Amino acid sequence: MRLTVKVIPNAKKTEITEDNPKEAFLKVRLSCPPVDGAANKELVKLLSKHFGVSKSKVKIIKGEKSREKIVEIDQG
Prior knowledge:
CATH superfamily: YggU-like
Shape: globular
CATH architecture: 2-Layer Sandwich
Number of domains: 1
Structural class: alpha+beta
Largest sheet: 5 strands, mixed
Number of strands: 5
Strand content: 35-45%
CATH topology: Conserved Hypothetical Protein Mth637, Chain: A
Helix content: 10-25%
């Protein structure tokens, strides 16, 4: 499954604020700053927990240095 994720770094808490499965779109707030990949690691951890898969099954395909990312989740 591929989804578009809009990330808001430096938020007060880490959470998924909008989940629209029909459009494969998520809006996510992360408490980490976007420094040295910390926000990306936190995003992978949050998505793996949300979808019930291991962290190795969540991959950022596009937008590692952008707030809008395309993420692939292998649920198989």
